[in-house]
Hints:
Strand content: 15-25%
Distance between the termini: 13 Å
Order of helices and strands: HEHEHEEHEHEHEEHEHHE
Strand order of the largest sheet: 1-10-9-6-2-3-5
Helix content: 25-40%
Largest sheet: 7 strands, parallel
Radius of gyration: 17 Å
Structural class: alpha/beta
Amino acid sequence: MTGQETAQAATQGYDWTAFSDREALAETLADRVAETLSAAIERRGAGFLAVSGGTTPGRFFAALSSRPITWNKVTVTLVDERFVPPSSPRSNAALVADTLLRNDASAARFAPLYHAAESADAAAIAAEADLATLPWPLDAAVLGMGTDGHTASFFPDADTLPDLLDPHNARIVLPVEAASAGEPRLTLSIPRLTGAGFLALHIEGAEKRAVFEAAMQAAIQGDDRKPIRAVIEASPRPVNVFWAP
């Protein structure tokens, strides 16, 4: 990125940082999150982190798990989750357990979004009751993004997309039904994500960069916005976008 491009990005609600490789991105992002959590622990005695699932954050999780944080004072939750039990290979909770909550990080508390229930709606209500007792706001949240412009589980074809993208939605956890999502999902609401002290978007590859840049073009407004743009527009501070080829 040139200095001019960085300044322009900042005026649009995000700060763009490009890395030469994915390992460098993972290490830098891990440092930023570790610094944020440690500062929160120093300030209020606890740290609160939300992370995404999928294939992208593996290197970041491995790097973060090795950072010297007072992990027994950290609570980790998910940005979103599939309505599947932790035994499923599609479970984000299982991914976090296997790749982040290991080594010293195994001392952290994990707060799941999935709850065994008859429906995603009922699971969202149960998750919300549990998460309501946690030390909000989030100190850090790390989002991912799909090639359709979705982030968290705000899918463009979701049945309740206007509610999902409502920056004033009072809910903590929302159920999501979308054909492109496969099974039902559970997601933190936009206000809970954008309330994070440090909000990052972690994307990799040329395709996702192009999707992000297209979503942020000024001509795209209203109902034509990609969900990632709605989240960035709702954030009270610039979102930190970390990209590597």
